[in-house]
């Protein structure tokens, strides 16, 4: 069995270069690849096009890359928690492509499955449809959306093995699951890394064939965007 394990995040991201397109898993701050984002900040990689459901918050997640002006273009569905994102978008410093959330997920999944394009009714009649082919199916108009083309997909899982098989935990499954294998190279960072054969095959969410490199992350902060608690009795 092929061993996909690399020693650390530096080795995992060694060939990411300026100007590349990168998918990053996560939903809000849940299930984001914290170690990989920190490494990109440290490396100072610039002119990145980032595909992610959202852009983190001002001082965490992709917000750290935005602070350093390392992102040239952001492809997202929701960006409401990041004031710096808003400032850069309104000032014209950042190119933004807003995409319906289901369409964004399907464009990732289509790339993962090797499907070049698909039709969807989402966005027809809005700015999302501008410049795109439209076609009627069963009396309803649809627009043609192309699968994403990314250089790297960086995902975060709860547990993985050295063959690249991944298990996600709870909501952290989110966009990580459809981004794995949706780029030329998929890097997975995991909280727990075990030898191949130790994971129950029935529990695996993503098979190792979709993963090129895997490493054990460290010191996960796992922030919560909006902490809501009830009063104690």
From TrEMBL:
It comes from the Bacteria. The keyword Hydrolase does not apply. Keywords: Transferase. InterPro entries: 3-oxoacid_CoA-transf_A, CoA_trans_fam_I, CoA_transf_BS, NagB/RpiA_transferase-like. GO terms for molecular function: transferase activity. The keyword Manganese does not apply. Belongs to the 3-oxoacid CoA-transferase subunit A family. NCBIfam families: pcaI_scoA_fam. This is CoA transferase subunit A. It comes from Flavobacterium rhizophilum. The lineage of its organism: Bacteria, Pseudomonadati, Bacteroidota, Flavobacteriia, Flavobacteriales.
């Amino acid at each position: 069995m092929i061993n996909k394990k690399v020693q650390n995040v530096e080795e995992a991201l060694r060939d990411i270069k300026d100007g590349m397109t990168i998918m990053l898993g996560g939903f809000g701050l849940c299930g984001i690849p914290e170690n990989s984002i920190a490494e990109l900040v440290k490396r100072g990689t610039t002119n990145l096009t980032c595909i992610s459901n959202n852009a983190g918050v001002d001082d965490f997640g992709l917000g750290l890359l935005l602070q350093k002006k390392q992102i040239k273009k952001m492809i997202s569905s929701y960006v409401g928690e990041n004031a710096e994102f808003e400032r850069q978008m309104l000032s014209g410093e950042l190119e933004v492509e807003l995409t319906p959330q289901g369409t964004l997920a399907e464009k990732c999944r289509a790339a993962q499955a090797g499907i070049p394009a698909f039709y969807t009714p989402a966005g027809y009649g809005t700015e999302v449809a501008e410049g795109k082919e439209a076609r009627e199916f069963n009396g309803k108009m649809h627009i043609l959306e192309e699968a994403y083309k990314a250089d790297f997909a960086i995902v975060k899982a709860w547990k993985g093995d050295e063959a690249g098989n991944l298990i996600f935990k709870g909501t952290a499954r989110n966009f990580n699951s459809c981004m794995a294998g949706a780029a030329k190279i998929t890097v997975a960072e995991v909280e727990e890394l075990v030898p191949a054969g130790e994971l129950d095959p029935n529990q695996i969410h993503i098979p190792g064939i979709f993963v090129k490199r895997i490493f054990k992350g460290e010191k996960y902060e796992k922030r919560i965007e909006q902490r809501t608690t009830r009063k104690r009795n």
